[in-house]
Every structure is written in C-alpha cells, then in structure tokens.
Design goal:
- The structure holds 2 protein chains of 2 kinds.
- Chain A folds into 2 domains: 3-52 and 273-404, no CATH class; 83-262, no CATH class.
- In chain A, 56% of the residues lie in helices and 15% in strands.
- Chain A contains 13 helices and 14 strands.
- Chain A has helices at 3-16, 18-53, 72-81, 87-96, 150-154, 164-170, 213-219, 238-252, 268-311, 313-321, 326-362, 369-395, 399-404; strands at 60-64, 102-108, 115-117, 120-122, 126-130, 142-145, 159-162, 180-183, 186-194, 199-200, 203-204, 208-212, 227-231, 264-267.
- The longest helix of chain A has 44 residues, at 268-311.
- Chain B is α/β, with parallel strands linked by helices.
- Chain B is built from 7 helices and 10 strands.
- Chain B has a 6-stranded mixed β-sheet, sandwiched between helices.
- The longest helix of chain B is centred in the last third of the chain and has 16 residues, at 194-209.
- The chains are: A alpha+beta, B alpha/beta.
- At the A-B interface, helix 1, helix 10, helix 11 and helix 13 of A face helix 2 and helix 3 of B.
- The structure holds adenosine-5'-diphosphate and magnesium ion (MG).
- Adenosine-5'-diphosphate binds next to strand 2 and helix 1 of chain B.
C-alpha cells in the first residue's frame, strides 16, 4: 500500500466523521493559530521597528534624558538622577561637537492639544518644536510647501508644518498653504504639509503640527525638555561621535570618573537590542503555550484514534483477511492521524490569517510564510506522532478476532 | 511500501505429491472459555489436490468455519500441522501469512465482509492495493473481475445499494482478482435465497471448470452435491470423505 492510498482512506474517514474530527482538532487548531498570530504580530512589529525606529534617519543617534533600552532598576536610578536635556546643552554641543553631518533638537510640548480652524477642532494633535535641521533626520518628508526656515526659527515665527490628518480634517478641498490655524488659542500660518506616513501599531503618524523650537519656547514653555539628534556622515563615524557627545556632556555636568552618565545616548541599535530581547521572551512564552496545546491536542487525537480503531476493528479484519500486513494497517492509521491533524493545521492557518488581518487593522501584524509552514508541519507532525500508538494497536489485531467483531 | 516478498516456493513436504495443494494433519482447535474448553476441531486430517471442487458439510457447530479459517490462514491451530502449496504454515512469518492471504487464497465469507463505505470497484481493488499493483492495472483488473461475476454495470455502487446476491458476487470478484490458487467459501449462499444461491453456485461451477481449486462449506445437500467431493464433518472430526461422481 502506498502513502497516497492511505491518504485517501484518511480523507474518506474524516469526511465520514466531520464534527467529531473537528472537535478532536481544537487543540491543534488553537496551537497553530496561536503560533501564526504571535509570529505575525512579532513580524509586523519587526517591520514597524525596521521602518520607523531603526531608520529614524540614517546614522542618527539621540541624546535624551534617559537610556531607552534598559532594565527597570536602571531606569528607576536614572529617573532619580538624570537631568533633562536643555537648550543650553544643545547649543553647547552644536558649538563643540566636531565632524557631524547634522544636529538638531526636538521637544514635545504636550502630547494632546486642540487645534482649530474655522469652528472645527481636532484634539490629540502632537505639537513638536523643532530646529530646522530636524527635517533631514526624521521620517517626515515635505509633501507640499516647505519646512520652516532658519529665519523663521531665529525670529520665533508663528508658522507650522502639519501632517496629512490635519489637512484631511480642515482642508479637504482647499489648499492649506498660507492658511492660519489655531494651536491652543494662538494663530499659526501653515508653510508646509508632510507626505503621508500612515499608521504604525494602530496609531496614525500624521496627526502632528511642528513649529519652530524657539516659537514653542516663546509661547508655551520657556525651558522645554529636548532630545538632541546627531547625524553622522556614515555609520563608521557613529561611535566616535557618540563618544564625543558623551565626553562633552559629562564635562558639562561635572561627572567624575567613577560616576555613570546622567543622560542617555540612544542609537537605533539600542532600540533594536531592547526589541530583540522583548520578542525573544514573547516567543519563548508562545512556544511554551504552543507545546501545551499541541500535547493536549495530540493526546485528544490519540484517544479519538484509539476509539476509531475499536470502531473499525471489523474493517481492519477485512483488510487483514485480504492481505494487509501490519505495516499497511500501521501506515493507514498513522497517516489518518497525520491528515486529521494536518487538516486542523489548515483550519488553524485560515483562522490565523483572519485574526492577523483583524489585528493588523487595530495594531500591526504581517503573516510570515515560514510561520504558516511551521504551523502546518508542526500540526501534521503531532498527528503522526500521536497516531503511532493507536495505529500500532490496530496493526497487531488478530485477523480472525477482528473479523468476528460486529461491523 | 511496494510489492511483497514471496515466501520461498516449492519446498516439498514429506509424502505429499506436488499436486497436493492443501494437506492437514491432526488439526486441533480448542477454544478456551475459561471454565470450559470447547474442542471445535479434534484431529482433522485430509488432502486436497489442485483443481479439486470440495464441499465441506456438517451440521451447525460441527467446526466447519473453524476449519476454513485455519485453511485460509486467518487463524492458527492449537495443535497439528497444515501444509499449503507444500509450505508448513506454522513456520511462516506474519508478512508471509499476509502474502498468502493476499495472493494464494481467495476467501468468500457468508456475511460478504465488504467495506460498506467503499464502492464495489474499490472493494474488489483492495487485495491489489496490498500487493502494490499500480493504480491503472488495479482498476482494469478489478473491472475485469466484476465483469466475470456479471457486475460490470454496478461498479460504482456501494454495498447497501446492491442486493445480497450482488454483494456476494462482489465478494467473489474480490476473491478472484488476485488469481489465487485456492478459493475458499464459507457458506457463500447461507444468507441468500435459493434462486440467488443457485446463481452463485453456477459461478463456482464455472470457476472450477476453468481450473480453480474450490473448497466450500455448506450444510445443504443440494449445494454440496454440486462439488465432486464431500468431506463430512461431525463434532470436529472427519466423519466421511466421499466422491459425488460428478
Ligand atoms: N471464537 C470462538 N470462541 C469460542 N467458541 C467458538 C468460537 N468459534 C467457534 N466456537 C465453537 O466451536 C464450535 C465450532 O464452531 P464453528 O466452526 O463456527 O462451527 P460451524 O461453522 O460448523 O457452524 C462451536 O461449538 C462453536 O461454539
Ligand atoms: Mg460456520
């Protein structure tokens, strides 16, 4: 008997017991679905990280009050002792740093803000004060108009550069350039609109208004907390520049030789490192859950296969009386078990594709092909493995005893 | 899993002429029922030659089925020896027994023993599946066997869509499909009405005429009379062994 024949026997047997087969397969279905959904979410977040954080501008690192990728206790320590980065720090670095390609500063003033135009309002708009150089170091690109100029920056001009969401809300049919919007009660003239960025992790990235950092200082916050972005000419110069920044900042903050930094230098690698650790443990947990479901699912399959062997003893007797060898019967039931579990895998994949699609709408998920393959192989493998014991039982039945059993 | 390995053929048995296809010697079968022991067979010895048409007769419970199952290599005797085609069956491995059931013996049961979910064609193909016959040849041979039993127009029917006589003919086609040297039939007409039974018996007559060795079990005289030899069994022993003169 060939595997192909055993396969068709299996399909026939499954068709004869659809509901029972499906219930049997729940464990395998859940395991497969979990595996693929988790891998899809991780994959989706990887893509997000890769496109939005890892590429926060080529060869850019960020001086911030804190290190972003750090342990909880380190972070508590940093919270107590680190000082915010101030405008003076920025000016100092700009003066003293050597060999950089670009330097800029950005400040989130408040996270949610009301922006109004002709009686309409938008809330939750991110208002950022930036130096003109920032346009070259962030993911926003000029769509129409321009970024604010050095002159506007120096004169604290009430101008802004806005994201697509604001255009969609306030200027669906009108050219927004030159229009004046109200940000927290103050008028700002629109000089440019950014290209659409899209959603990441379910959050729109286009709901911002950027104003000159000096303007933010003048109207909203005299001493904003900054992030300083430094761009190197190439990747090879990054470390050297980071060391320069570290040395300059330590000197400015009078940090002695034994003391640790009271600021954080964050490169995309740091973020990637943190992310990898995070996904590593997420993945480990998933594997654990998966193993449990697969084993439970496997045991259920084994029981159903044992019942099936009992139920089909007469059939086994007929087959043996016609010359089926032990290994033929063994193969028939192992393959039946494998096909059944594999069908569970297919259902699991289908469910996972649907769930991943839903998750992608509110968060992020992208189904990797190898997750699908892994899911299918794993489920089939579980079926084959847990089918061995019942199949072996079936193969050992005595032909005449089996034939005597009522059909 | 491809084709099976044939057990070595032609090992000659002491005192048996090469034309002897079945030889039993002092066969016993005892069923252990715990408190009591049932002796279904108590020392059965006989020989059957190639091409013979033998009826085994006896009242119900006399041990006919037990004997047939031993001859068909479906069961093993408690004591005694059995040679099939010159090979001592007790020495054969599981796989060799499977090979014999597949290739050398065509067994027809009283209760047909068809797979209920499979079509007539698929039922007849089963023995061929177990010796690795390629699909196309398998189908052709199964169709041919079904035509031999005049069921060429019922190939895609399932057993429950066939009459009793038709089911038994499917079972006979299945027994024939591997061109076995022996056809064993245990009360093949037992579940059929007389007219249908006669049709089935006519089929056996034809098969014997074309050279098949046939051993069939019955408790009806009319049926047994169609054979050329009748072995009478009573209480697990051979009571009489007669030629019918046909
Ligand atoms: N599996 C079995 N277990 C116990 N006793 C059996 C079994 N099969 C047959 N017998 C007994 O063996 C005797 C012979 O049975 P059997 O060969 O079926 O007779 P027949 O086919 O001639 O009617 C009977 O007494 C029957 O009850
Ligand atoms: Mg009987």
């Amino acid at each position: 008997m060939t595997a192909r024949e055993a396969f068709w026997i299996a399909i026939e047997a499954l068709r004869a017991h659809k509901l029972r087969s499906f219930l049997t397969l729940l464990g395998v279905v859940i395991a497969t679905t979990t595996l693929i959904v988790v891998m899809s979410v991780i994959n989706g977040m990887n893509l997000y990280i890769a496109t939005h954080i890892a590429n926060l501008g080529a060869n850019v690192f960020i001086l911030d009050q804190f290190n972003w990728a750090t342990s909880d206790e380190e972070w508590l320590k940093e919270r107590r002792r680190n000082k915010p980065i101030k405008l003076e720090d920025y000016s100092f670095l700009k003066e003293n740093l050597r060999g950089y390609k670009n330097i800029g500063a950005t400040a989130w003033f408040r996270n949610s803000f009301a922006v109004r135009y002709e009686g309409r309002a938008m809330y939750d708009v991110q208002i950022r004060g930036e130096t003109p150089s920032m346009i070259d170091m962030e993911q926003e690109q000029v769509g129409t108009g321009r970024y604010f100029s050095q002159a506007e920056y120096e004169h604290s001009a009430p101008v802004c550069f806005i994201g697509r969401d604001l255009v969609d809300e306030f200027f669906p049919n009108v050219d927004p350039l030159g229009k004046v919007i109200e940000v927290d009660g103050l008028p700002f003239r629109i000089v440019g609109v950014a290209q659409k960025i899209g959603k990441t992790l379910g959050q729109s990235q286009d709901d911002f208004a950027q104003i000159p950092l000096t303007t933010l200082q003048k109207f909203y916050s005299a001493r904003p907390r900054l992030q300083v972005h430094v761009q190197a000419g190439n990747a090879g110069q990054m470390l050297e520049l980071e060391d320069q920044v570290r040395a300059l900042m330590r000197a400015r903050h009078h940090i002695s030789y034994q003391q640790t930094d009271d600021f954080g230098i964050n490169a995309s690698q740091t973020i990637m490192g943190l992310w990898e650790r995070l996904t590593g443990s997420l993945f480990a947990i998933t594997i654990g859950i998966l193993a449990v479901f697969m084993v439970v699912g496997g045991i259920v399959i084994m029981n159903i296969m044992l019942a099936s062997v009992t139920e089909r003893t007469h059939e086994i007797g007929i087959r043996k009386s016609l010359g089926a060898r032990r290994r033929d019967i063994l193969m028939q039931f192992v393959i039946e078990s494998g096909v059944m579990a594999g069908a569970g895998g297919v259902i699991g994949v289908a469910l996972a594709l649907i769930i991943a699609k839903l998750v992608d709408m509110v968060f992020t998920a992208s189904v990797p092909l190898n997750a699908v393959l892994a899911g299918l192989m794993l489920s089939t493998g579980v079926g084959l493995f847990f089918g061995i014991y019942p199949a072996n039982r079936a193969s050992k039945l005595d032909p005449i005893e089996a034939l005597r059993t009522e059909a | 899993m491809g084709s099976q390995v044939a057990p070595a053929l032609g090992r000659d048995v002491e005192g048996a002429a090469p034309s002897v296809i079945i030889k039993t010697e002092d066969l016993w079968k005892t069923y252990d029922m715990g408190a009591i022991q049932v002796n279904a067979l108590c020392g059965v010895s006989f020989q059957i030659e190639r091409g013979e048409y033998v009826a085994i007769m006896g009242p119900s419970g006399s041990g006919k089925s037990t004997l047939m199952n031993l001859i068909g290599c479906l069961d093993t005797p408690t004591r005694g020896e059995y040679w099939l085609n010159g090979r001592r069956v007790s020495e054969l491995t599981d796989d060799e027994l499977a090979y014999i059931r597949n290739k050398e013996i065509g067994f027809v049961f009283q209760t047909f023993n068809l797979l209920s979910r499979a079509t007539a064609l698929h039922n007849v193909e089963l023995p061929l599946i177990y010796n690795g016959t390629p699909a196309a040849e398998r189908r052709a041979r199964a169709e041919e066997a079904l035509r031999t039993v005049e069921l060429g127009d019922r190939m895609e029917h399932k057993p429950n869509e066939l009459s009793g006589g038709q089911r038994q003919r499917v079972a006979i086609a299945r027994a024939l499909v591997n061109r076995p040297s022996i056809i064993l039939a245990d009360e093949p007409t037992g579940n059929l009405d007389t007219a249908t039974g006669d049709e089935i018996m006519a089929l056996f007559d034809r098969l014997n005429a074309s050279g098949n060795t046939i051993v069939l079990v019955t408790h009806e005289h009319d049926i047994a009379a169609r054979a050329r030899r009748i072995i009478h069994i009573r209480d697990g022993k051979v009571a009489r062994d007669e030629k019918t003169g046909r």
